[in-house]
Design a protein that fits this description.
heterodimer; A: 141 residues; mainly beta; Jelly Rolls; 0% helix; flat; B: 146 residues; four-stranded antiparallel β-sheet; 10 strands
């Protein structure tokens, strides 16, 4: 088995009266075990220039980059909008199927579990058609 | 304005044939700005029983069309414990014991969205969950006796 860790640190010296510093590390295990996840899509980079909807990870398919992800387990997905922040108005809407999760502005990242069931695609829609670059990786069993 | 940063490091020495080491840091800015940080935060710890899908973070008119970010961690230690995280009946995925997530969130009160609240259901055992919402304002409920 492999040992893969994900560490997050959230910190601010001035959002509250006292500084906050939240830090946690999780080891990526297969569902319900202490066995490390052993598969990954690897780190990918995708450029697109459309304001239309784009499917990044297609849940439940029998082919394609996400085909081996077992549904309803402990898959994790990392996404980052590699664009510059610009004027702060350009973003990428991240969706799970047709449901909007939230906006990744230039430089923003997210790390979420993914159920990967049929139809539970991870999709994005850019706020305009200028070129956007997304980096992503998926850890799965 | 406040300055809040979120950093991630993904690392492994044996998942691939070469070391994996990925790091990224972002500053939590308000929508449509380049240097104005989010000013407000809610930070909670709750014990959530099994058997019911709860609204963990409720949608709010003041949070629509904006930049909000959510952090959730399952503090349980039994590896069989997990929670399902959903939005509008769409399951995002499962957090097992010790797992965390960090994601943007766009509270959407449109009819099409139906319900953009972030939902959580615990399985196997009661879930001990810590979560934070970094945001730019929320609509408080008027006191019933006001």
């Amino acid at each position: 088995m492999a040992t893969t860790t994900a560490t997050i640190t959230l910190s601010s010296a001035d959002i509250m009266d006292n500084p906050i510093s939240i830090s946690n590390t999780s080891t990526l295990y297969t569902a319900g075990t202490n066995t490390g996840i052993t598969e990954t899509t690897g780190l990918g980079r995708k450029k697109f220039a459309t304001s239309g909807n784009v499917v990044l990870l297609d849940g439940g398919l029998t082919s394609g980059i996400a085909a081996d992800v077992t549904a309803d387990k402990s898959a994790k997905v990392y996404l980052k909008n590699m664009n510059d922040r610009g004027d702060g108005t350009k973003f990428v809407n991240i969706l799970l199927a047709a449901v909007e999760i939230g906006r990744l502005y230039g430089g923003d990242w997210m790390f979420i579990p993914w159920c990967a069931a049929s139809g539970k695609d991870i999709e994005f829609t850019a706020s305009d058609a200028t070129e956007t670059t997304i980096e992503y990786t998926c850890f799965y069993e | 304005m406040a300055t809040t940063t979120a950093s991630i490091t993904l690392s492994s020495s044996d998942l691939l044939s070469d070391n994996l080491s990925l790091s990224s840091t972002m500053t939590l800015y308000q929508n449509g700005t380049t240097a104005t940080g989010l000013d407000e935060v809610n930070y909670h710890r709750v014990n959530i029983p099994t058997g019911t899908n709860f609204d963990l973070i409720e949608e709010s008119a003041a949070l629509t069309e904006d930049a909000s970010y959510v952090y959730i961690i399952l503090k349980n230690t039994d590896v069989t414990d997990y929670v399902k995280i959903s939005i509008n009946a769409e399951e995002i995925g499962r957090l097992y014991a010790g797992d965390w997530l960090f994601m943007p969130w766009d509270s959407d009160l449109s009819a099409a969205a139906n319900d953009s609240s972030i939902e959580l259901e615990a399985f196997t055992h009661e879930a001990v969950v810590e979560f934070a919402l970094f945001h730019n304002g929320e609509t408080l409920v008027t006191a019933a006796d006001s």
